[in-house]
Specification:
The protein has helices spanning 3-19, 24-56, 73-82, 87-92, 111-121, 190-193, 197-222, 255-265, 280-287, 341-344, 364-367; strands spanning 105-108, 132-135, 140-146, 172-178, 180-188, 246-249, 275-278, 298-300, 308-310, 313-317, 326-328, 331-339, 345-358, 370-382, 389-394. By secondary structure, the chain is of the alpha+beta class. It has 2 domains: 1-62; 68-147 and 166-397, 2-Layer Sandwich (Major capsid protein gp5 fold).
């Protein structure tokens, strides 16, 4: 039996098990396994098709070799991107090369090189620290979320031999995601191309690291939801999913304003997981709040990822380009997003970075330059638990 047939049988078995699931957690766990198996199925089918073609031609399907221990993978990747790698060097990363690029260089960024990007990103704002991340190997999928809340009183006391009280029936909501490609390019001059492969790779990785983080942050807050991720701030207008979680005030927020939100509006959220997000205007306002002894309420806090806390909660300054003022009735309101974003927002990450180059496409041929393109794939969705956040819009005066 072919490997693809075995995987199909496994998927069918998992689907039967999912239909009998008695809880959302079990269902989602099985659904994740199904997504994984479907990804494996696609790879198995492709591999089998290639094997058939190879046999038809009377050849043996080539196997991608493992890089040698002494190979400088980063240097080879840099050369492959700009088309200067030798045939021997390309054979070392054959499993990373993108098919059908002709003279263009296309490389899936390997794990060792991606680690360098992660190191560069640690110095900048990364929204992924604060949201839920689900890794996926498929381009489309869905997750089931519970839409309504359980009874506040929980289970009732029951006498032996008497009927057990019926509780609420969970309302399940299916959240669908579709992985989108996000890409951009920059021109590279011949002078930079003539630099060492290490310096060239460093330049490209810095560019990728910065723009990957910028894309995540912008989409999480501002994504339109149509052929793009779903943005938090795009859902606070009329009819938006989060409009009911907006509190608008026509003055400066004071300490009592924030305490009320934390103590009452976020009553169901674990207090330790509440984080305050705001832009530079909001952060500056909070930095100016002092107690009766002239001490700032904004405190340095080494236990928080951002390094600062306010009223015991981590406070994160979001670059204003990602979290701008909200315009209502021609007035600019400063946003404060308060709560647990891990409960509110999920990013479905394909976990694959691709870097390509061309000397013959676009304006590259006319201008005698090389264009470098970076691309990666993900989607972002607001979950059913909208009560995990409260959005304060304040008119700072």
């Amino acid at each position: 039996m072919k490997k693809s047939d075995l995987i199909r049988a496994k998927i069918e078995e998992l689907r039967v098990t999912a239909e009998a699931a008695e809880s959302i957690e079990i269902f989602n766990g099985i659904k994740a396994d199904i997504d994984l198996q479907e990804g494996k199925l696609a790879l198995a089918v492709k591999s089998e098709e290639e094997a058939v073609k190879a046999q038809t031609k009377g050849t043996v399907l080539p196997q991608a070799p493992e890089p040698k221990a002494d190979v400088n993978l980063g240097e080879i990747v840099a050369k492959a991107i700009v088309g200067t790698a030798t045939r021997e060097e390309l054979s070392e990363i054959k499993n990373l090369m993108q098919e059908g690029n002709g003279e263009n260089g296309g490389v899936i960024v390997p794990k060792d090189v991606k680690t360098k990007i992660i190191e560069l990103q640690r110095r900048s704002f990364d929204i992924r620290k604060y949201i839920d991340i689900e890794k996926t190997s498929v381009l489309k999928g869905s997750r089931v979320k519970e839409k309504n809340e359980p009874e506040a009183t929980g289970f009732a006391s029951v006498d032996e031999g008497t009927a057990i009280q019926k509780l609420h029936e969970p309302t399940l909501e299916e959240v669908e995601y579709a992985i989108r490609k996000y890409a951009g390019y920059i021109p590279i001059t011949n002078e930079l191309l003539a630099d060492t492969p290490e310096n060239l790779l460093t330049f490209i990785l810095k560019w990728m690291a910065k723009n990957e983080l910028n894309t995540y942050a912008y989409q999480v807050f501002n994504g339109g939801g149509v052929k793009a991720a779903e943005g938090i701030m795009k859902n606070i207008g009329s009819g938006g999913k989060l409009e009911s979680r907006v509190k608008q005030i026509e003055t400066n927020p004071v300490i009592r304003t924030f305490k009320t939100i934390i103590n009452k509006d976020l009553d169901d959220v674990d207090s330790d997981n509440i984080v305050i997000f705001t832009n530079s205007d909001g952060y500056d306002h909070i930095d100016g709040l002092e107690d009766g002894n002239g001490r700032s309420y904004l405190q340095e806090d080494a236990t928080k990822a951002s390094g600062h806390s306010f009223l015991g909660k981590e406070i994160v300054k979001i670059p204003t380009k990602f979290l701008p003022a909200v315009v209502r009735d021609t007035k600019n309101y400063t946003p404060f997003v308060i709560g647990d974003l891990k409960l509110l927002y999920t990013m479905y990450d394909r976990e694959q970075l691709i870097i390509e180059s061309t000397k013959i496409g676009g304006d590259a041929w006319r201008n005698d330059i090389t264009e470098i393109k970076g691309a990666f794939r993900f989607d972002g969705k607001i979950n059913g638990d909208i009560k995990s956040v409260q959005i304060l819009l304040a008119l700072l005066v």
